[in-house]
Amino acid sequence: MKILLIGDIFSAAGREMIENHLDEIRTKHGINFIVANGENIAHGNGITTNYYKFLLEHHVNVVTLGNHSFANHDIYNFIDDAKNLVRPLNYPGNVPGQGYVTLRYNNLTVTVFQVMGRTFMNSSLDCPFQKTEELLNNVKSDLYICDFHAEATSEKIAYGHHFDGRVNIIVGTHTHVQTNDAHLLPNGTMYMTDLGMTGSLDSVIGVESSLIIKKFLTGLPVRHVPCDKGRKQLNGLVVEINDISHKVTNFEIINMVK
Ligand code: FE2
After folding, report:
1. Which of 43, 74, 94, 221 is the most exposed place for a label (fewest CB within 10 A)?
2. Which residues surround ligand 1, an ion (CB under 5 A)?
């Protein structure tokens, strides 16, 4: 089977790339299963019912979230009924929604889950490593796909090595910058530190550059306004997995600029 993983879809520019180009990518690569990060899809912050449905209508099988999971209040209206939506598994308390979902594709069970890193992130989170161990012990599946939503490259790489051979695909999200390190780890896990973002290229990770430059030049707070002008990008990774051996047989980086 061929799996497409799409990095953080950011605001209107990201939605436009999905609307105009996802079908073409899906057909060109013969994609069977899509995982997309949607935590920034609503005006750069959070997700709404309509945008969740928009992704499902574009054949996304699982939508993952991140540190902005609960940024748009509409999430509370639908998260508990959203069967194809995954928020980080390692929230410490009793938080709405689910940290993983297991779906069937042909004869395979596919478990998609998300954990958040703790370095430079929310320090009250539970340990992503321990939460993953618990998941692997308790949820039996043919394939495991992890969206590791984290800031620090070292934390992501350490996580990749720790679960090498036990999680089939580990891809990072959150930084919005695609890393040039997609590779198979020694025990066969497909690993990439960050998929990159889907949205405005001529921006500072999705936001109007002038605002972020002002913030760095003055130290004053600014309101983040998504950039919808200029070039747009769609970033992700295609991974081919043998349906019988469950081994990764091929992969291709997606870095489309329009
Ligand atoms: Fe994030």
Report:
1. 94
2. 66-67, 174
